[in-house]
Design goal:
The chain is built from 8 helices and 9 strands. By secondary structure, the chain is an alpha/beta fold. The chain has a single domain, classed as Alpha/Beta hydrolase fold, catalytic domain (Rossmann fold).
């Protein structure tokens, strides 16, 4: 495996009896979620910011991974945190939001989840686009990272998008559809109307499909990687307030 890129390192913070698991997105790294994780930690939460397999190193490493690897890592991170905390909230951006929903469907004890521009809606056109590229022998295509409105801010993400891993994510999103109604915990949905990676309709889909109570926040000034964008403070403040409501004070 290639060395971890500077800034992409996972991180843990000790805190009180409530925990926060914070999950980054596809081809991204903990760098995109570190401000939110730091906000949870500052609010007294025991916080975990894992690095998903194949991420934060090289595209070549990611080509060897799939949804199975990322979901196993997310499950392990959750189990570790839940073993140390009385209550746990999970927050995720983009594919991190997909993993957040996946965890919530399997762990009804989760106190609440935060979905930020989460990928949760089946997009058949993606398979139509990717299939011919794979058949033609392509392994990557143009990058999807760094969709940020704020000038001078850069996401630490790969400069190419690995095709087979992306197809595995698309298949996982299809499978997720039967899980969404089973999610009964409180859900905070934050989304950017100007998102050039995940259709904003994906957040509408989450809000209308999950079984639990839903709160929504619109990130008017940000693009997809909103955690590094103009609304980063809005995300942190609303996420912490939500987590304190569903977990109780630390």
């Amino acid at each position: 495996m290639t060395d971890i890129l500077p800034g992409a390192e996972p991180q843990s913070w000790a805190g009180g009896p409530s925990g926060a698991l914070v999950i980054h997105g596809f081809t991204g790294s903990p760098q995109s979620m570190r401000p939110l994780a730091e906000a949870f930690a500052a609010a007294g939460f025991t916080t975990e910011l894992p690095l998903l397999p194949g991420h934060g190193t090289s595209v070549a490493d990611m080509l060897e991974t799939s949804w199975d690897d990322w979901s196993v890592a997310a499950e392990a991170a959750y189990q570790d945190l839940a073993g140390r905390c009385e209550h746990v909230v999970v927050a995720g951006l983009s594919m991190g939001g997909t993993l957040t929903l996946w965890l919530a469907a399997r762990h009804p004890e989760i106190a609440g989840i935060v979905c930020i521009n989460a990928a949760a809606m089946d997009q058949p056109e993606m398979a139509e686009l990717l299939g011919p590229l794979v058949e033609a022998g392509e392994t990557t295509f143009d990058a999807i990272g760094n969709d940020i409105a704020k000038k001078g801010v850069t996401e630490l993400a790969y400069d190419r998008t690995p095709l087979l891993p992306l197809m595995s994510l698309a298949a996982a999103i299809v499978a997720l559809q039967t899980d969404l109604p089973a999610i009964a915990c409180p859900v905070l949905v934050l989304n950017s109307p100007q998102d050039h990676v995940v259709p904003p309709a994906s957040s509408d889909h989450i809000a209308s499909t999950v079984g639990g109570p839903v709160e929504r926040v619109t990130l008017q000034r940000s693009y997809h990687v909103a955690t590094l964008d103009h609304d980063a403070e809005v995300i942190a403040e609303s996420s912490i307030a939500f987590a304190l409501r569903v977990c109780g004070p630390n």
